Every structure is written in structure tokens, then in C-alpha cells.
Amino acid sequence: MREEHIIVSRDGAVLEIRFNRPDKKNAITNAMYGAMADAVAEAQRDDGVRAVLFTASGDFFSAGNDIKDFAAQSTGAFEGPRHVTRFLEEVIQAEKPIVAAVQGHAVGVGTTMLFQCDLVYVAEHARLTVPFIDLGVVPENASSLTMVERLGHARAFALFGLGEPLTGNDAAAWGLANAALPAAEVEPRARVAAQTLASKPPQSMRLTKRLMRDREALLARMREEGEIFAERLKSPEAMQAFSAFLQRR
Ligand code: COA
Fold first, then answer.
1. Long-range pairs for 9-13 at CB < 8 Å and ≥24 separation?
2. Measured from the CA of 135, which atom of ligand 1 is nearest?
3. Is the CB of 25 under 6 A from ligand 1?
4. Is residue 147 part of a domain?
5. Mutation pick for ligand 1 pocket among 24, 25, 134 (CB with most ligand atoms within 8 Å)
């Protein structure tokens, strides 16, 4: 599916997926998830693609799931397939390496998707947050597993429980990001890394990535979280949080 807020392009053997909804801080709608799921799936099928690069326009990497969509899902007003699950599954199952250029702040899935990427370059000033509890929901995208594994329980719980941000510098120091850089250097550095990955023997790259990640465990946790998340979307705590955001002005 095509969607104006996601720009998919090719640079040699690198497929780039760009968040392009800067006026809404790159909040991700259902249609955007659909376009990204299609792009990641196509990257796996196309032998000419050897690496995937996520980038973003504007000052935010992504403000996470669109809260209007959450609100519609919580009241049952939302119709049609939810593409978010397909997107998360495509990324978890991707065989080709994924690089992220995080030039600004990230919220929710904008943060948790980074733990599913293979290389992450982040702006030093970026603040990465996961306010699932404040929103009355629970962690998604297997982040209750990946964040605890990568950061340790104490740090992960401060992010989930206290709502503390992970700064770009800490993301690099604590093993989420490969480097924290001045914002203007993030995308160029990620591009070079993606091109380097794309120049390597593709089968060896694919097999190495497979050995390094327990896809079954990630998928199982993502689905377990997803069931609880779907119930929580309809909870009074969540409905209150969504309407507070939508009515804040
Ligand atoms: N869903 C829908 N719209 C969003 C959004 C989201 N997740 N995040 C930002 N926007 C919209 C705002 O409603 C605003 O729209 P408007 O100009 O039509 O009023 C626009 O993007 C700019 O956001 P604004 O809040 O004015 O910018 P800010 O710099 O003051 O704050 C955020 C940015 C991201 C901190 C704040 O918008 C926010 O907290 N968003 C919600 C993040 C969130 O909880 N995401 C879900 C994670 S699971």
C-alpha cells in the first residue's frame, strides 16, 4: 500500500524507509504501519536489497503510535485491519540487516523498534521514552524482553515505570546505539554503515543475523504483550489518557 507519510526509496542495495509526517512529530498511523510492513517484506523478497535503513524528516524521529488511532481502537470506532502487528512481525523476522538513523526524540514504538534494529545511530540530544504505563497500556514490540536484556532490569524499569528518558548519550553507553552524534551527522553516518553492510557477502550476513537473534522468543513475547495491550486499549485508564492528550489544548 502507498502512503504519503512514508517515503520508500532505493540507494543501490539499501532500501530506505523514511518517516515523513514532521508536522505530527512522525506519529505513526495505521496506514503508515501498512506501508512500512509492505516495504520491509519487499526488502526480504528482493535479492537486490541487502540492507534496510530507517530515517525520519523533521526534529522528531517518531512520537510513536498515533493517539487518535489508539483512541479509535479503544472505543471500537476503528475499522479494518490493524497493520501494526504485521509491521512488528516483519521487522522481527527480517533476514536482512536493519540500520536506524535517529536524528531526534522518539516515543513508544519509535523507541522500541530501535531494539529490533542491528545498528543504531542516535543524536546526542535525543530523548527516547516509553510511556506505556502513563498511557494505561503495557510495553509492546517485545520490549519487555529486549529492553530488559539490553539495559538491565533497573534501567529498563526506570524508563517504563518512572517514565525517565533514555538520552542519546546513554543509549550509546548502555548498548542500544552504536554511536551518539551531533544531530546533523546521524543520517550520513547511518547511510555509510548501511552501504557497508550491503557490500558484504549477503548469505553470510543473513546467517549471522539469524544466529544472533532468537526470533521465536521475540515473536512469542511480542504476541503475548499484544494480547494484553489490545485489552488495555479498552481500559478506563487508557481511555482517560488518550482523551487527556486529545483534549489538551
Ligand atoms: N499521535 C497523534 N498526534 C501526535 C502525536 C501522537 N502520538 N504526537 C504528536 N502529535 C501531534 C500533536 O497533536 C500536534 O498536533 P497539532 O499541531 O495538530 O496540535 C503535533 O503533533 C505537534 O505535537 P506537539 O505536542 O505540539 O509538540 P511538542 O513538541 O510540544 O510535544 C510530544 C511532542 C511528542 C512530546 C507530544 O506531542 C506527545 O507527548 N505526544 C504523544 C506521544 C505518545 O504518547 N505516543 C504514543 C506512544 S505509545
1. 10/49, 11/191, 11/195, 12/195, 12/198, 13/48, 13/49, 13/50, 13/51, 13/195, 13/198, 13/199
2. 44
3. yes
4. yes
5. 25
Q: How high is the pLDDT of residue 78?
A: 86
Examine residue 231 and state whether it is found in any structural domain, yes or no. no
67 CB less than 6 Å from ligand 1? yes
Q: What is the mean pLDDT of the chain?
A: 97
Indicate the pLDDT class of residue 249, thresholds 50, 70 and 90. low
Q: Please report whether residue 208 resides in a domain.
A: no
Q: Ligand 1 mean position to 62 CA, how many Å?
A: 9
**Which of 24, 57, 141 is the best mutation target for the ligand 1 pocket, counting ligand atoms within 8 Å of the beta carbon and taking the most?**
24
Q: How many domains does the chain have?
A: 1
